[in-house]
Amino acid sequence: MDQAMGRKIPSRARPRSRARKTLLVLEDEKLTGWSIRESLGKDYRVQVARSAEEGLALLPRLQRIDAVLADIRLPGMSGLEFARKLREDRPDVKVFLMTAYEGEVAARKAFAIRADGYLTKPFAMETLKDMLLSHLGSAAP
User: Fold this and answer.
1) Which segments within 3-140 are labelled E, that is strand?
2) pTM of the full predicted structure?
3) What is the number of other CB atoms lying within 10 angstroms of the CB of residue 123?
4) Side by side, which strands form the sheet with 94-99?
5) pLDDT tens per residue across span 37-47
6) What are the pLDDT digits (tens) for 53-77?
7) CB within 10 Å: which end of the chain, N or C, has fewer?
8) Which CATH homologous superfamily contains domain 19-134?
């Protein structure tokens, strides 16, 4: 209720008391990045970077980051290298890696850097959503 006017404030006008969790996606394939943003955008704040270098430049501007989903193979710095650097500065951020190429070798590399999860492309968006839910809890804190 609006105390001064004695009327109800519509729910869409009320400020959200909880911010959605933030996911940084490192994906050089434009369509894949778009698909992830569209699929997760209702539940998470999704930022997409087309390279690890672009992702590193975004990090200081993000007030909070809960998780990173990085393609292992990116132009320039790899997703694995990005994850190593991220772990040094922000060890509390969940790291998920994905690839379409390297199979079992890539999975071993991912877990060697303590990745929280690993996906082989192509993957179902429901699989990604389930993985995020199991590691981050609900989308809102």
Assistant:
1) 21-26, 44-49, 67-71, 94-99, 117-120
2) 0.82
3) 12
4) 44-49, 21-26, 67-71, 94-99, 117-120
5) 999 999 999 99
6) 999 999 999 889 999 999 999 999 9
7) N
8) Response regulator (3.40.50.2300)
